[in-house]
Amino acid sequence: MILSLSLALCLWSSFHSKTDAWSIQQRSLNKRYIRFQSSTTRLFGGPTDDNNNNNKIDASSPSSLPTIHLYNSKSRSKEPLRPLQSNNKVSMYTCGPTVYDYAHVGNFRAFLTYDLIKRVLLYFGYDVTHVCNLTDVDDKIINRANEQKYDNIQDLTRKYEAFFFQDLQALNVLLADHYPRATEHIDEMMDMILELASKDLAYETQDGSWYFATANKEGYGEQLVQLNVDDMETTERGESELKRDPQDFALWKAFKPEVDREDSSWERPGKIKKGRPGWHLECSAMARKYLGDTIDIHGGGVDLKFPHHENEIAQSEGVTGTTFCNCWLHNGFVNINDEKMSKSLGNFLTLRGACPQSKDVRAYRFLVMSSQYSKPLSFTPDAMGAAKNSLKRIDKVMAQIETALSESNQQQQQQQQQQHNMNDESVTNSSSSSIVQQGVVPKAMEQFEMALLDDLSMPRASASLFSLIKAAEKELKRGTAVASSSSSPTDNKVPLDLVGLLSIATALRRMDTVFGIFYNVPLTEEEEQQQQAAAAAAIEQTDDASPIETVPEEVMVLVTQRTEAKQAKDWDLADSLRTRIAELGFVVKDVKGGDPVVTRSES
Questions:
Q1: Is the pLDDT of residue 327 over 70?
Q2: Helix (H/G/I), strand (E/B), else coil: 570
Q3: Do the record's keywords include Transmembrane helix (predicted)?
Q4: Average pLDDT over every residue of 543-570
Q5: Which long-range CB contacts under 8 A does 463-466 form with residues at least 24 apart?
Q6: E runs forming strands in 219-294
Q7: Where do the domains of the chain lie, and which CATH numbers do they carry?
Q8: How confident is the model at residue 485 (pLDDT cuts 50, 70, 90)?
Q9: Closest by alpha carbon to 541, among 590, 478, 474?
């Protein structure tokens, strides 16, 4: 396939602007994925034979969406995802945070796994409705509020909700459609208790607590785990000794003045005495309210299989009499020194503590997104260092491709003018695209998509991404830019394969709709303060520092280009731009963590 250079550059400009819009308008991602995949298949060498196009998306026919196979913890095997609704709408419920403290990196592995699942579904054109709960009433919350003497428990929970959403933004996580709070769904929980009681699946004890009668629920404790129910230790802290069976779990905990608070207690006079819900009930109630009796996917950490998810199944199916969830996905632990990270073990690291710099946050995202979600993940300095190096390599290639296309765009006008002056109507790049001819991009994209369809095999998907990075590096090293210093039509230099490089960059951005790594991480408050202080100190140390307004626009443009060159690790270009700035009578002083300071030279 041979594309005109003019068309290629036009496509690059159009695509670049559209991908920026995607990061802002997350809710319409799935529709754009379909349109974009269709266009890139046509433009960059994708198969045109219907027999070789089985995994491509036909936007006009929802039923043609490729089938994703996922490991279902319930069946203990990989199964094809079969959405309940015929129009490929997928309902997904995931367990959210308990908002009494900062979430740790182990928690955020789960939230990134949910993000991965949703991004893959959107990538292939599925319409996802995602619900993630916020637990804002719990033993831990009450204890923390009492310890820190909060007058209103909501002040504590809202504080850590805000921190949670800030961390999601820093990690570039697509937001769920609903984040229901437990405290705002007490009525739904009470309704479920009474429904269970009407079916002899719940009972009230003398102190006013309510428990689920596990002995009356056939198959309890056998859905997600293979345990001997008689050996299960399920009595949780604060549960009544009045319950009938040790395996029964709390649906409602009666108010105890010595430990409970008035601002986290409710009652339904004549039916349910003053108290608060148990841990498991909120998820059943909220999943039912927002997604219906049966959902397609339920996600959570592997540690939630029992008792939490088993108890959800018992509650929900006890009320509805139908299957609660068709596919259960569980992500693996994050380990430190070969031990599960957990607050109870005291070896946890908050995201803010483990990733103090914005670049660390982005590296953690890539570390998680390039790993197999269901396997344990070791959080080590070496693993984080490797993730950072991978991102540097990817960023450098993308910056070099963009620079090459931008520079060729400037010279293209001159080339086209020369052709016009020679009465040559053709403005087509006559060189064949080796990258396109070799089928580099279609092969990588096919491998990438097959990896996603096979239980979200992100190590294989990452290998496909780096096969494109390697091809781009090889081409960038081999060739010279079309916008070379020579303007002779008979120049013997072999130009860069711009069409091929454009196809690689486009494919990488397509892949990034799953990886989610091409974004600017918001600076932390500490980083912003450091940046401002460093810039102020640098200006104070410069005796002849000129106000920004006195620096000519021509110089500032060069300064900006130099900054971009440094970010792309193009040191030769950065040095050249510094020299040009000096020739214009100015000096650039770099500031660690801040913008460069521009001053007039002394001479």
A1: yes
A2: coil
A3: no
A4: 70
A5: 464/511, 465/394, 465/508, 465/511, 465/515, 466/390
A6: 249-254, 266-268, 272-277
A7: 5-60+394-515 (no CATH), 71-188+273-379 (3.40.50.620), 541-600 (no CATH)
A8: very low
A9: 590
Element (H, E) at 587: strand 586-589
Tokens of 244: 């009938």
Distance CA 361, CA 436 (A): 35
Closest by CA position to 213, among listed 246, 254, 253: 246
153-201 per-position pLDDT tens digit: 999 999 999 999 999 999 999 999 999 999 999 999 999 999 999 999 9
Percentage of the residues of the chain whose pLDDT score is greater than 90: 58
**Residue 453: closest CA among 39, 56, 110, 95:** 56
End-to-end alpha carbon distance in the chain: 56
- Please tell me whether the peptide bond between 277 and the residue prior to it is cis, using omega within 30 degrees of 0: no
DSSP assignment string, 365-426: HHHHHTS-TTS-EE--HHHHHHHHHHHHHHHHHHHHHHHHHHHHHHHHHHHHHHHHHTT---
How many whole angstroms from its chain centre is CA 510? 14
